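ok so dumb question maybe but i'm new to this and my supervisor (M.) told me to 'just get the structure for Importin N-terminal domain-containing protein' and walked off. so i did the thing. is this what she meant?? sequence i used:
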Amino acid sequence: MDAMVEMASVGKEQIATWLIDTAGTQEAAVRTATAHLEDAQNMPKFALCLLMLSAGGQDKGLRVAAATYLKNFLKTHWNQQEDGLSLEEKLEFRNQLVEVLLRVDGLVLKLLAENFRLVAVSDFAKKMTWPELVPALKTAIHNSDLMNGTGNSELKTLNVLISLQTVIKPFQYFLDPTVPHEPVPEQLELISKELLGPLHAIFHHLVQQVATSKDEGCAQHDNILLVLCKAIHLTMKSHMPLSILACLGQWFNDLMVLLDTVVLEKRMDSPDQQPRLKCWKRALQICCNLVSRHRKHVDKYLPPMSNTALKIVARIANAKDVHPMQERIVSLAFDLVANILETGPGWRLMAPQFLDLVENAIFPALKMNEKDILEWVEDEDEYLRKNLPSDMDEASGWKDDLLTPRQSALNLLGLIATAKGPPTSGGTKKAAATKRKKGGKGKGKDGQGTAGEILVMPFLSQFPLPDDGAAPSSEQVLNYYGALMAYGGVHQFLRTQSAETVTALLQTKVFPLYAMVSPTPYVLATANWLLGELAFCLPEELSEEVYHALLKALQAPNDSSVSWRPVRASAAAALSSLLQEDYKPTQWLPLLQATVAGAHKQEEGEATISLQLLATVAEAGEDHVAPHVSAVAAAVQGEISKHIPPHPEPWPQMVELGFAAVASLAQTWDGAEPDEDEDDGKALANWKTGCTTVANTFSELLQRAWLMPAEEVDQTQATPPPSCLSDASVLLAATLRYTPDSTAATSMKVEPLLQVWANLVADWNAWEEEEDEAVFDSIEEAIALQGRCPMLHFTKSGIPPRPAPQVAQRSILECLVTFLTTAIESGYPTACWRACRCTHALLHVSQLSFEGEGTSNILVPRFCGVATHRFQQLTSVNVPLAKPLILLITMCFIILPEPVVKILSVEEDGSSNVTEDGASQGLLTWAEALAGLAESASDPGLSLESEMKLAVIGLQKVLVHMINSDTLRCRKVFKAAHHCLRSLLEATVDLKELVDSSETDESHSESGSDDNEDDDGDSDSNDGSESANSNDEHEETEEEFLERYAKTARELQEEAIEEAENGQDEDGHEIELGVLALVDHEKEVLACLKEHGRKLLSKQPLPKELLSRFKATFPESRSYL
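this is what came out, is it supposed to look like this??
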């Protein structure tokens, strides 16, 4: 600590003052203090000063502020090569950091541990430049207060162990997942040998303390035991150090003793008891990890581990009112049993216990209890997420976060039901679900001879239907609730059963519930969930009956004593699953009416359920739903509009889901456009009439969201928030698409809507493929509308008419340009492709405005600049992403060549790349890239007429530019010009052949479709043979799993590298050529060749084959080639 005192006291006190000021309430003082601290970061030993302030003093707020600022400082400066800490300062700081960390407590300890992690990960785990760390920690352990024998020491054992845990944490995962058999990192081996191994003695002692204090539920040093458990878990999570393996039996025995002390008979909610609960949880996680990751080392420990886990789960019936952490412990015990069951030795151990396990552990966990009834009343959403999960609430992440004994018991029951015998190899078992899935819908024989057929189904069949109107607390209802839960848990087993078995189950155990006059809602909701779980294996003849049962439950009214919302919610989720399995109801209207009725309910939770279901119905119904879209959209739009708040942020969930539902309706309507000759054109005429109605509905909803009356607008917020911008873009695109003329555009307030939307997307920074697609669609529709009926504020900014917010906004064009240039310069590859395609159309439509020339002078340099910047960053001109960038630069060059040449002549750092001969290296690189792209054998190449025509015109223009610039004397320029000439001839011939053979291609595509159908049949048969052979696959060993894991990791890495410059899925879209489509490119090319051909060919001839091909296609060229 002496080195830290060398810091000037005045400087230290001043920094302390600034830190205190940053937590003040005066904004000016906060800004000033923050600026001073930023300036002080360059001061020598600034980090040491912060560490000293964190360590000493009575002001806890100052210590916390210093530790927090230090953490942020280290994040940005520790690994910096420039403007970072010097080597001497780093060495001094990290040694002092360890000294301070071992002495502090509370929140400061937590913050400094994070500081220590940042340094340890960098210097110890990655760079291996901190050899003195392990010896220092070893010495600290021996001298700490609990280890030195006296109990008096400044060094706290808890702090030392937290430091140890922090050092181990980086090694919890494989450092290089692409390596099949990664050796134990030498740092982790050293830690295990020198630090963790010797700590077993204190671990054993602390476990004995837990055993002797079982009744109290806590001991003095439980928090130290918890840190040790964490350290052990992190050490063995991926690796097994030799020093730990050598004494694994000792650690294991103590873990079993620790788990034998688990308490479930009483609630443990005292703060002093929390560390012990976490110790039990961590011990079970260690056991799960040992079985799943280190099987070959723990086979001999499986019997005691199995007994311990079975003892815990068998006490589930006594765990009535326990702490959530105690529930988590039971859940982990079920998971441990499941992990053991998936091994060969474990299966043999568990098989004799199956019946007892189902009767005395699993089924009690599934039965309804008082807590379920209470949770139903107090928090319906929580009840649904924990007990009746569905894809509709998948976004909440409950499957990872809300792990309960019931869910773990269901998972275990599913494994037992599909179990036939032990795995045949010593490795881990492949996911049984994958194999079972290949068996089809209840047609296979995988379920024969399984525990599900022999044990589980007979056990569940003993529970009779509850009486109509039975009390929720009756044993009948409690048991039947558990039985229905269990049937849902064995859905994979039921998938392997015959259709007759599933039919009998539903007709005897489920359908009678829907015929009752007064069914119990708890049981009915579970029945709905069960039908949703079985949606993928329902016999076709039962689908209609299931549909009507769920539709009835969806419309069930509330009871006077209890809410039926979970019944309706589970019915909606099950209907969604049914529709997603390609079930098509004979009548769609009743379902649509039910969703609309639900959307009109006052409770937001009811409306959200119905709107989610409506979106699924619209996507699944397609042509069946399309005739009802206009009526349904109008009804839902009115209800959504009522809930859009005057202050537009935040929007309630009902509004967000409403926009998603209406967007789905819009896509359904758009996809239902009939063919021109369908019903003698009447169908298309009716659809177009409906387009007007639909567009008006969408416009009204967008107006309510974006064009609020002035008195309702918060003037501090100029534009609405970008809530639901993707779904709103779908509606806007549809509105623009269905706007035929200026009169309709005015009546639907298209221009004000477009202006607000454009200002929103100008600040877009989400950049996710699915979200962006609707934005790009709207841009394309906006450009098309501008071509049909020009808008006043498309190129000029202005104040839109009321009721839009009365503030000056950017023009529509300016906003679109901002969005597109951002996408081109920094968007992911697919976004860059789409933006380039939109830019072609935008450049041409802007040329048609009154300010066309002036607009082009602004737009071309902007677009060319960002395209060139992205092009220069590519690793190669031959990657797929180069294609849209090359074509966009080509378009810009055709429109305004001189500004483009200037842009291409400047490097990224601003320096010029023009040579002494006057040749622009950037221009030559682009010209060569364009020439290469136009070659017939190029991949990716040019396959569309618009692309080829653009390339031909561009090559001809750049060739003329090179000739006129008098730089052909430069060898590089002549080489590029000759390449352009060769590609120009080749592309011109290819384009001619493409245009001439379009009709032939159509006939070939028709015959090709027939061939494809035959190929599909062959493919199906091959799939069938693969499926048939899949049952003969051997069980995967640990070595095979690691090899497959590493191979997948390598493939993902390669895919990520490739995808970074790919986006080729967007290839195949025609480019908007505008007035260039009217150019007679053949005439221009022939004129260019007539004037300059002999000059270019005199120095270096073209391939004879190419010349012959060109002359045969264009005979008039023979005289000058």
